[in-house]
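1st attempt posting a full record on here, be nice pls
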Amino acid sequence: MKKIFIILLVFLVVILIACNTSKEKGEPSKQNQETQESGVEGESKEEIAVNSEEAEGNNLEEQIPEKEESKLAGLCYNPYFPVEPNTIWTYKVHCPDGEVCEYTSSFSEITEKSFIEKLISSGFSIDVSWLCSNNGLIQSNYSELPFEGESEDFKITTESYEGVILPSYDQWVVGYKWDTKYKVKVTFTVESEEMAFDGDIIIVNEIVSIEPVTVPSGTYTDAIKINSKKTISQETKIEGSSMSFSAASDISSWYVEGIGLVKKVSKSECGTTLVELLSIE
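the predicted structure (as tokens):
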């Protein structure tokens, strides 16, 4: 009986991870993440630490004050994901259960190779570490937004990653494809006993079109649409038996040059989540 209960819990955890709003601006798990200044892909966190030791050293656009070019220099430069200090993006989220909430996104500790994104809502405040490389931008820890109503009884720890979440600026053309991969460890507690399993998260991305999009912040005529397929799979042994589970979600995201993410629609077994840009200030 306990084995069946554990199997059901493992399956539920996989589903919950898939149901969360996926990648890009504003998607972390409820954990603070340390900044790492490596742009090398596909390394374990231990390898990144070693490398870090070795290495020293529409009308809305009119409302945004001009920033000095030096603040945007370096590997972190991408007009489709502008990492600007002293700027706040506010988003509205429509959850599958009908709940509506808001969160803000802002940036700090900006260097040529890394930055911190701070996500704040009435229910959480999270720092997300991003790394910058010649190939693009990636969160050094796989992360999800802890929206109200989703489970907080499990923790996701990133073991390694490969690829980027957002490609470099010169790759933003229709037809460009790339993959994002994370190896993670998920831990949760069953009857006071902590359990863990290893999982693989693979996100297959493609820029599919340039099209107009309308959100509360305005209408944008040249938004780049990215379609992503996120698959979460894991295999674990329970009382000597090997069990595997998987879940998937489909995500469409719209980005505008000079603005960033303006809209995202995520569809999974839990329903549809809609994220829209309200304002930038």
